[in-house]
Amino acid sequence: MVTLNGNSLTFSEVKKVLYDRDKVHFSEDSMKRVEESRKAVEKIVSEERIVYGITTGFGKFSDVLIGKEDVEELQLNLIRSHACGVGDPFPEIVSRAMVLLRANALLKGFSGVRPVVMERLLDLINAGIHPVIPQQGSLGASGDLAPLSHLALVLIGEGEVFYKGKRTSAIDALTKEDIFPISLTAKEGLALINGTQAMTAMGVIAYLEAEKLAYQAELISAVTVEGLRGIIDVFDEDIQIVRGYREQAETAERIRRFLSDSRLTTKQGEIRVQDAYSIRCIPQVHGASWQALNYVKEKLEIEMNAATDNPLLFDNGEKVLSGGNFHGQPIALAMDFLAIAVAELANISERRIERLVNPQLNDLPPFLSPEPGLQSGAMIMQYVAASLVSENKTLAHPASVDSIPSSANQEDHVSMGTIASRHAYQIIQNTRRVLAIEAICSLQAAETRGKEKMATATRELLEEARKIVPFIEHDRVFSKDIEKMADWLKTQTMNFAEKKKNKTKA
Length: 506
Known about the structure:
Blueprint: E1 2-4, H1 11-18, E2 24-26, H2 28-47, H3 71-82, E3 86-89, H4 92-106, H5 115-127, E4 129-131, E5 134-136, H6 145-155, E6 160-163, E7 166-169, H7 170-176, H8 188-193, H9 197-227, H10 237-243, H11 246-258, H12 277-280, H13 282-304, E8 312-314, E9 319-321, H14 329-357, H15 379-395, H16 417-450, H17 456-465, H18 478-491, H19 496-505
């Protein structure tokens, strides 16, 4: 059971809720804050004070006053009109994350929703009812209006959900779980949709997958070092210390440990004096990506516990402030950084693949073919990797440098943070396939040289991977191999690199 209080949600807890399907509930203190905040909204309505989004319209309509007899219709119209997202839905795990993060933000007690709204959000999580939310249509300010409107629809019994492996109507799923839809009252519709939870939820899932992938990239690259009989000296601790970057040093340390008992690595001058940059600079390049990942994690942890709607209520409603916490710029920049960092893991991986298959760059069978000429071996796998990294370069163009005015120029600068998070996620999927290709090629090369000479850690990877993709003895449809390897990397709950890291800590 994970307890939400609006202030201290961690990545560890998020993983428990998302992947282990832990139940959630709210702390007593957080619900007290919600109740006090709600009283403030009701007082504003009864006194007919002019407060944005409570007794006024939205966006450019902020100057239109709404009578207290119409505040409920105002909220319902808001949700229905703003639920205009398009395109394929977010992955179900992202939808689950979105509900979790929106609930946590509202529990901070600055948004003015009723306790029943919190209860329904947690009901969705605990019952495994996940809104179907189209991916496209958010500018990332004022928050993720369109995506979160599709989430809010489910609370009122409209829209669609993912439930028990099927896509169905919200009311059908709610009925089966004995969950009653609610009618939104003053401020509640706005509080539900004026936030950054779509980009943040997508960002959280992207980060968790990228972190795992970064560890796997290190172990796969270690196998490539063996397959190419690479020079181990470049991972020496002294080289890393004088540069001064902790992440670079940590990457080099993990690779040293992976290869500590390998008989396939060489010393400088033994076969060659220097390796190419894609081998020699693994700590520097992978380490720089780790720096970016650490930055992204820090920003996401802040945003997961942030109040991001508008207006916000302070001092029991005596102080109601309209601001811009819904603006997604911090996450937009972080997602662009994540996209670039992961794209670089693919870039350097593709160069290592080239060195594994190019007969002019190694002493292995050309293209790792079992019968060069008659059989093409891994020749076109390198083409696929090159195509994926080229696509990544297009996707890595920063979304955050773009902005376009909306709401009759009232909202004249937006973040495009949700686009940034979606692009980062797509880059991660592409990069995993590139690393899958490197894994296939590096394992083929190392096994060709003699698996008995491989390090303990890399041989363990070989033995497990061979259950997924066998040794190449004859040309076959390698598309299946690539997808199987990529799926295997994605579904590993504890990858080999993390195991080695944990052993190191012990």
